[in-house]
């Protein structure tokens, strides 16, 4: 079946259930939520509106599944690895269906989901499957006693029950980023997908079940902020991993204080992208356009603040406007679409509000000339020039296809502005001068710095933020530290 055939046959409109303790269940009170197609504003399906009671039964299922003697705790590292690898294989086998689900539920172009979201989700499970057999402790000499008097060593153990809350911009990929390392470490999980985009997580739950995960190891509770708040505050959750806005991240910090849960947070960004006059300008313009317009700008690491060295400012802006005007706007299910709708009416209103504030503040908008569909949450891509720090569009995360351009003369000019940037998720630099690239990367306080590229991530590379862009890292070997405890054992041999 091809992608163009799938809208009629590939996505069921039947009511969905959530996944708790190995069973597909409704909310205890029978409440439901509608999930909408942002391109048509029509209901795709209903899902349970889980509440605190549903979160509690999911946590209890996860706790039972991580206790000593449970099937999951008896699973060998090699067996865990094979299960994780099988999940990755199943994601690829169902790639077209999952790409369509992402497009219909989120609005993103189905072609982008096919070459980015689906392969990377699968790759996370494949990559993490190799780590299950490499989680090791150490034998450490006891320095305060004669050799042979004590045997001291460390073991690495799963942290326990993990609550994971994921956003709506990359639903399947974020589920993979969260689930794969937690399962590799031997934890059990209660996953709460975004209320706007629950469908791919529920389908992933079916694939996880097919791969042979024991009951209760993965639980998926759908619902709104009530369910997320209950999960963050639950006294029997050992750790919370959250991706989303900085504002909600701070709420989760407060909610987790009851039992001092361990936290990892991947939060917002206002990422600087720097184009020097000596850059390959064709490459820089194309990559910078992709950095802001990919996924409709709904990316925490979107290159939304562009610094251009003054001698090439006009040339770069002209090139960016040309790239913007070439974008094909439409429903994500159309293979020709490059810029789909925003995820919701709320997000559309938010982005439009920022555009209006930029105009009021005196910035000059360059707006894409595409005609927009009459229905759906579509907005025109926009590039602002004549901007300055202090404008909302310059200082705040917009999370839409809106770029602000600022000229610069010296790197120190950028460093001075970025010193007040509360975020530090990503940054980028375009130059042919390697030493200049390294100096600029060193000057950026960001978790990831792209040089002559953007949006090029890999399962083996750690990803996360400085400052208010979060705590901890996703992906790579580093992510496993989020899900493991270290136990020290000291034995007197005398």
TrEMBL record:
List keywords of the entry alphabetically.
Answer: Oxidoreductase
Cite the Pfam families for this sequence.
Aldedh
> What InterPro entries would the database entry show?
Ald_DH/histidinol_DH (IPR016161), Ald_DH_C (IPR016163), Ald_DH_CS_CYS (IPR016160), Ald_DH_CS_GLU (IPR029510), Ald_DH_N (IPR016162), Aldehyde_DH_dom (IPR015590)
Entry keyword annotation includes Zinc = no
Entry-linked SUPFAM superfamilies: ALDH-like
Gene3D superfamilies found in the cross-reference section:
Aldehyde Dehydrogenase, Chain A, domain 1, Aldehyde Dehydrogenase, Chain A, domain 2
Q: What is this protein called?
A: Aldehyde dehydrogenase DhaS
**Which gene name does the record give?**
dhaS
């Amino acid at each position: 079946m091809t992608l163009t055939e799938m809208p009629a046959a590939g996505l069921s409109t039947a009511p969905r259930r959530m996944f708790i303790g190995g069973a597909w269940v409704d909310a205890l009170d029978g409440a439901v939520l509608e999930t909408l197609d942002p391109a048509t504003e029509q209901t795709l399906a209903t899902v349970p509106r889980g509440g605190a009671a549903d979160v509690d039964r999911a946590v209890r299922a996860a706790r039972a599944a991580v206790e000593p003697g449970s099937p999951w705790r008896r699973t060998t590292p090699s067996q865990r690895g094979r299960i994780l690898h099988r999940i990755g294989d199943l994601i690829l086998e169902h790639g077209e269906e999952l790409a369509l689900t992402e497009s219909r539920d989120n609005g993103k172009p189905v072609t982008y989901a096919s070459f980015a979201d689906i392969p990377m989700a699968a790759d996370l499970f494949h990559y993490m499957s190799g780590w299950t057999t490499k989680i090791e402790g150490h034998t450490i000499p006891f320095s305060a006693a004669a050799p042979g008097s004590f045997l001291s060593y460390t073991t690495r153990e799963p942290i326990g029950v993990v609550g994971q809350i994921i956003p709506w911009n990359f639903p399947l990929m974020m589920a993979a980023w969260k689930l794969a390392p937690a399962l590799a470490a031997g934890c059990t999980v209660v996953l709460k997908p975004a209320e706007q985009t629950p469908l791919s997580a529920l389908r992933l739950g079916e694939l996880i079940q097919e791969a042979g995960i024991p009951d209760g190891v993965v639980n998926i509770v759908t619902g709104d902020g009530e369910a997320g708040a209950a999960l963050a505050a639950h006294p029997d959750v050992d750790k919370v991993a959250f991706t989303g806005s900085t504002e909600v991240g701070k709420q989760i910090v407060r909610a987790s204080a009851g039992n001092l849960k361990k936290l990892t947070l991947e939060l917002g960004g206002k990422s600087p992208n720097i184009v020097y006059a000596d850059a390959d300008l064709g490459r820089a313009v194309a990559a910078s356009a992709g950095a802001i317009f990919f996924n409709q700008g709904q990316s925490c690491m979107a290159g939304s603040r562009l610094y251009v060295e003054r001698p090439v400012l006009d040339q770069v802006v002209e090139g960016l406007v040309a790239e913007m005007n070439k974008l094909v706007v439409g429903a994500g299910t159309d293979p020709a679409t490059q810029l789909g709708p925003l995820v919701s009416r709320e997000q559309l209103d938010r982005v439009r509000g920022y555009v209006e504030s930029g105009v009021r503040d005196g910035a000059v908008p360059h707006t894409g000339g595409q005609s927009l569909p009459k229905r759906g949450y579509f907005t025109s891509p926009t590039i602002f020039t004549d901007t300055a720090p202090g404008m909302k569009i310059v200082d705040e995360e917009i999370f839409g296809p809106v770029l602000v351009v600022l000229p610069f003369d010296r790197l120190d000019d950028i460093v001075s502005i970025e010193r007040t940037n509360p975020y530090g998720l990503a940054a980028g630099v375009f130059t042919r001068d390697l030493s200049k690239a390294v100096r600029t990367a060193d000057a950026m306080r960001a978790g990831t710095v792209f040089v002559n590229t953007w949006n090029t991530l890999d399962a083996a590379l750690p990803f996360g933020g400085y400052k208010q862009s979060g705590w901890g890292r996703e992906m790579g070997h580093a992510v496993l530290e989020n899900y493991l405890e270290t136990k020290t054992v000291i034995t007197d041999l005398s």
